[in-house]
Automatic annotation (TrEMBL):
TM ranges: 54-77, 180-200
InterPro entries found in the cross-reference section: GPCR-Ligand_Int
Protein name as annotated: G-protein coupled receptors family 1 profile domain-containing protein
Keyword terms of this UniProt record: Membrane, Transmembrane, Transmembrane helix
Length: 227
């Protein structure tokens, strides 16, 4: 059976579903469908879903605790030896700091999300604060994640030099050269990620002619015609 959706057009966007019309031309108000969906369909979580829920709540705080302690100790130790050993010890404090930020953003956010039964997402709350915050948050997070990967590439190159040409260690792996490499990586990634300031942002339905937002219940998903 075909199901047709009644939409209201505002500006250039199509984003409000008012009714559903079946093949017999019988119209049904979407409010009735939403109400019946919420009250009559009560899906019980599967055992694996319950397990994952409590796994997040119980285990993730330990990840946060041990990850915080381990990364903080690594930062202190690596900073202590960064002036007298290879530049690798200068790279690692930044890697540990980025890992600590990722730990709180990803693991911490997932823990809060499960703690509030998937009804609260801190990252989404931050992104929705304003258009400027959305751009800056996206830019900074992608920048630090990419920064870590490129720093690890530099560490891998130094390891190859140390194993293949150990006589070049003191000339190629100095602290000054390491600082110059990190500066180059930072400038390169900032330039590559500047597009976030004009390609990311909060878009309201109907504001952008290239975006059509269709909102409809899972009750009719798969049978809705967009024609």
């Amino acid at each position: 059976d075909s199901v047709y959706v009644g939409m209201v057009v505002h500006g250039n966007g199509i984003y409000i579903m008012e009714y559903i019309q079946d093949i017999n031309n019988t119209e049904t108000d979407t409010k009735d469908i939403y109400t019946s969906y919420d009250t009559e369909i009560n899906l019980q979580p599967l055992p694996v879903e319950n397990f994952m829920h409590y796994f997040y709540i119980i285990v993730f705080p330990y990840f946060l605790l041990f990850g915080t302690v381990g990364n903080c100790l690594s930062i202190v130790l690596m900073r202590r030896y960064s002036g007298s050993v290879w530049s690798t010890c200068g790279y690692m404090p930044f890697v540990c700091l980025i890992d600590l930020i990722k730990l709180y953003v990803e693991c911490g956010n997932d823990w809060l999300k499960k703690l509030y039964n998937d009804e609260y997402n801190l990252s989404e709350q931050i992104l929705d604060m304003s258009n400027s915050v959305c751009k800056v948050y996206s830019f900074v997070y992608h920048l630090i994640v990419q920064e870590k990967e490129w720093i690890m590439v530099a560490v891998a190159i130094e390891t190859a030099i140390a194993s293949k040409r150990p006589t070049l260690i003191y000339r190629m792996c100095s602290r000054e050269r390491g600082n110059a490499i990190m500066l180059f990586i930072s400038v390169m990634l900032i330039s590559l990620n500047l597009h976030f300031f004009w390609t990311y942002g909060l878009v309201k339905p109907g504001d952008d002619p290239s975006i059509n937002v269709y909102l409809y219940s899972n009750h009719v998903k798969g049978t809705v015609s967009h024609e």
